[in-house]
Amino acid sequence: MMRCRYCGKDTVTGSFCCEGCRKSFEAIEERMQRQGRLFLLCIVASVIVPMAIMFIMDPDSFIALPLMLIFLGLTVVVFPFCTPETVESFSLRTSVKIGRGLGAVMVVIGLALLPFCADAF
Ligand SMILES: [Zn+2]
User: Fold this and answer.
1) How far is the CA of 97 from the centre of ligand 1 (A)?
2) Which of 13, 72, 113, 114 is least crowded, fewest Cβ atoms below 10 Å from its Cβ?
3) What is the whole-number distance in angstroms between the Cα of residue 8 and the centre of ligand 1?
4) Ligand 1 centre and the CA of 55: distance in Å?
5) Residue 21 alpha carbon to ligand 1 centre in Å
6) Buried-exposed string 78-96: b where 16+ CB fall within 10 A, e elsewhere
């Protein structure tokens, strides 16, 4: 018995339970290959931009920390690309959901911390 690589349902027909799942899986995989570099760029920017803002606004504050959380969270929500390990243990659809959920949690925590770290605003 195999499991569908997209939705995780048991399947006897191969790697996918239906044509729709195969198409969805390939679409995400293709997007990962196409946008992988953009994703990395966003991660790097999510670290550098908050640091730059902190140094310009108020080098003594911790404003970079919540900003990084928000930027990184947004990046993960937009590009819910997961490691192959996560996809192996869950299905791709579950991995994408977990990735988006974690990204959203990061944004919420970042927004909650923002007022405490931003005396300058
Ligand atoms: Zn499926």
Assistant:
1) 15
2) 13
3) 6
4) 49
5) 5
6) ebbbbeeebbeebbbbbbb
**Ligand 1 center to residue 47 CA distance, Å?**
36
For ligand 1, the distance from its centroid to the CA atom of residue 17, given in whole angstroms, is: 4
62-94 pLDDT tens trace: 899 999 999 999 999 988 766 666 667 788 898
pLDDT in tens, 23-66: 999 998 888 888 888 989 999 999 999 999 999 988 888 899 99
What residues contact residue 102 under an 8 Å CB cut-off, 6+ apart?
Answer: 73, 76
CA of 64 to the centre of ligand 1 (A): 41
Residue-level pLDDT at 107: 97
Q: Which is it for the CA torsion 37, 99, 77, 55, positive or negative?
A: negative
- pLDDT for 85: 65
The pLDDT value recorded for residue 79 is: 84
